[in-house]
Amino acid sequence: MAFVRQMSAVLALPNLKATHQRVETITPYAADIVISRAFASLVDFVTLAGQHISQNGRMLAMKGRQPENEILELTQQTSWSVDHVKPLRVPELDAQRCLVYLSQQG
Question: How many domains does the chain have?
């Protein structure tokens, strides 16, 4: 959380807000983007944090390998879908990482 606060100040991003709370206890608000890192399955992520997204908002999930099984479960169990998956390269880390872009259908 300290990193997010520092980057918000350094990059002059007044709308960026870091909150240290359980996602299910936060009063819902209309965020344009909610990002998770090593949080939960995609289904759990949209179920728990989806209430905080604006009508045209998006959710981004940082994952290790591309989560094919989670993507399948997401499309079968929710109204959310994967727009695309972007591979990430983390300096000095020899492991696969990706960013999954999610949006709600209808």
Answer: 1
